[in-house]
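Example record

The entry below shows one chain as it appears in the dataset: sequence first, then structure tokens.
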Amino acid sequence: MSAPDATAEGPVAELTDRYVDELAVLDPCLAAVMGIAGQEERLTDFGPGAAWERAELARRTLRALDATPPAGDAERVAAAVLRERLATEVALADADAYGTLLDTLDGPVQRLRHAVGLLDQGADTAWDTLLARLRAVPDALVGLRDGLEDARRRGRVAPYRQVVRNARDCRDMRPYLAGLPAGHGDGALRGALEEAAAGAAEALTRCAAYLAEELAAVAPEREPADEDRYRLGVREFLGTRLDLAETYAWGWDELARVRRETADAAARIAPGEPVPAVLAALDTDPRHRVEGAAAFRDWIQELADGAIAALDGTHFAIPAPLRRIDCRTTRTDGPASYLAPSEDLSRPGTVWWPVTDPDAPVPTWTVPSTMFHEGVPGHHLQLGVTTLNTATLNRFQRLSSELHVGHVEGWGLYAERLMDELGHLADPAHRLGMLAGGQQLRAARVVLDIGLHLRLRIPAGAGFHEGERWTPGLAREFLAEHCGVGPAGFVAFEVDRYLGRPGQALAYKLGEKAWLEARDAARLREGAAFDLRRFHQRALDIGPMGLDLLRSELARAH
């Protein structure tokens, strides 16, 4: 399938086209996530020199943008979106945020794993391309070490928790890479693939040893960001500025509200039983289990297909290229995730669902709401429509959704709520899954992310270590007690995730809040003329952006 012709034109569009091309060359791993073709054989250089080049590209493009008058209203919006992102990139570089970045969700190690995994298409794999990328893994890891050592010489080292988890991720990646050549069959290329995979695995072993033995020995135990760095993280992921004390209090109120709703939903399934007992019973209920990864993949594919069929032509107009989602399982840890179609549409929108044991039964009662979040009407619809919108969005807007986390994840959580409103979570277990497995966790993230990084006190009336200041240990206890939904290791992963990327965990609930408030404002403005389908179309057509800009643009669009 070929890419649609680009029609968004103007001086800002020309500038962003050049920026995207240069960014892809300097950051092939990010290009892979964004769906930019042409860098498939390369990996990102994580060394200090390359990091400086990427920061200089942002500065240079920002200066050029300031000197480029937009041609019309669409370019005014496009310029605002690009300026917001470039200014944030420059601020992060000036704060030396990248020198110690060992994020456990989307850091360099995880980006390398993802970049290789995107080329793994089974029998349809482009083996020569995969071979080149496997051969690039050792140099990419050397660059990562050089970058971390450069920061270390300046007295900056990532926190111990982030260092040791990334060492584990390096070790966990080795068997996956070692198994890749098996899909090719026999022949000379098979031998080259095996050699490259072995070299990549050896480089991962060296990187894991460096992280676990050298860097961990000097890594600080102190983990939270200071307030300035935290506010920069909020700006990076949400595109907004917050009253943090007010948002912390709102998080507690929202968590209490969702917990009450969760208790009511559990009582409809098993009156008189405590919520944890109801959740545990659902995990073992044969009505809500699928046997094995292969059958589970078929189950979620059917779920995704059914949602598209039900919503297309009613509440949304779903373009033909988006009426299919490629649902896959993966044996890695972590949450389910979505990857948008590539720019040329050769890669379909893909949902990746972690199933660590391919033969074990998989509980399904939490799955529908998550599939609606990742698929339709969630990320697949939102990001797919954005990718296809060449009429009013320039190339950066179409491909930069992953950089606007509050916008994207807020829509995903809004999509869960919407599907409940539309009756697609009529099964009481599925609705409880949305509340206990999604809404409750995302509300807890607001409390924990702000509380951990700003070292705030737990307020009176919380019913949990009142008056104490947040620590990672208290965060793990809190999640296990209040949001104990997920596989083994989930709670520890969540806390490490918050501490590794300040502000990112706020994106879901605060993004949802922004979307709901925008819908309520449109309904109030338009009165009886308000049309939900038209609101959704308008909201998706303006493309990804920070939450402050989203609010202002949706208020203008009437």
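Notes for this example: DSSP finds 22 helices and five strands in the chain. The first strand starts at residue 289 and ends at 291.
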